[in-house]
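Input chain follows. Return structure tokens only.
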Amino acid sequence: MYKYIFIIIFFTLILIFMKRVLIKDALLSTKEVVVAGFVDAIRDKKNICFIVVRDISSKMQLTIDKLLYPHLSNIVSSISLGSVIEASGVIQKTDFVKLNGVEMLVENIKILSYALPSPIVSSQDTETNLNLRLNYRWLDLREEKNILMFQVQTSMVNACRRFLLERNFIEIHTPKLISTESESGAGVFHVDYFGRVAYLAQSPQFYKQMSMAAGFERVFEIGPVFRAEKSNSRKHATEFSGLDVEIAYISSFEEVMDLEQEMLVYALENIKTQYGDKIKELYGIDVIVPKCKFPVVKLSDLYIMLENLYGYSVDEKEKVDLTSDAERLCERLAKEQYDSEFLFVTYFPAEKRAFYHMRDENNIPCGYDLIWKGVEITTGAQREHRYEVLKRQAEEKGLCDNVKDYLEFFKYGCPPHGGFGIGIDRLTLILFNSTIKQSMFLFRGPDRIKP
């Protein structure tokens, strides 16, 4: 009796004074370690129990000898799937364990948190529908594939930030509560602001341009964006994370296109190096790093090519913008005609572009859309920096009163500039061939504002 009490006290002290290590490091250890994580699987036999535990880094089999450590029997019999446990023991390499060829010979184990049966796994152990999984998103995110998605997203954002910082960009953080309706004045959320009406910003566009007037020259922001649009497509959300970039002293919008291409190639190179093998293993997807410049096609030429090559035709009045089907066909066109996953589309008519886009001598906006795998990821442009021209273009669209404060930025001198915005969550869904609901940490849409 006293012997077992001594053993319990001894190994409890070990757990107290030894620091937990990640499983990926424990797998390489040859000494006694402490690991902790979620219980992924349990096989409880009469004299021995096998538990698979996982943390953010890897998985490991724990082997508990009930005859050698009888005080552990009651503990392991009460452990459930999904519970969080902590275990100490000696690491041993063995050919009998398929999981990494390593097991821990457990000397002590502790339940840190008991888990009830998961509501998102049926009795047949099959996945439930997506809406239910989103209701219990914290459980859904535990899956290795989902964790990888957000590790890759972190790598992508970090690479873009590093790319821009290396080129002397300044990171800014603009307000998301604004006093007037931004951009088109449509699709904005109204907020009660101490008895006055305020709005959630659709983008940091106006403030990026204010920073150009302030002489910052090169800026970017990574932050939330709000769109009050009742869309339930695989790529739309009412709140998402955006990466916005603006650069001064450009001579054409092609410089903006070049900057964006360089940044995306840089990010994809980093992702492929860090996670390419894991993405291939879990998703069966090859991360393609572009080797050549992205192809560029005028909007009018695009519709001609789509009709000639694929028999796709639409009414002339629809050719002022990219239809959903035309956008999707861009993936096939880019791959078959240019051996590229990306395609720049240019020369959109003024009626479909924002009032602040600069226009050429033919009144064509100096901007573009960038399509990746048949999904639009960017609208970019050279901006109109001349006050009188900008005011006239705002008047044309009936927005002069709405953007009165914005127009003030350009009265006192502003260099020529341009930029673009990218949805980080949309980049993620395209990379993983997923949907916006699955590629966001927590999705927000017309019918979802929880959890």
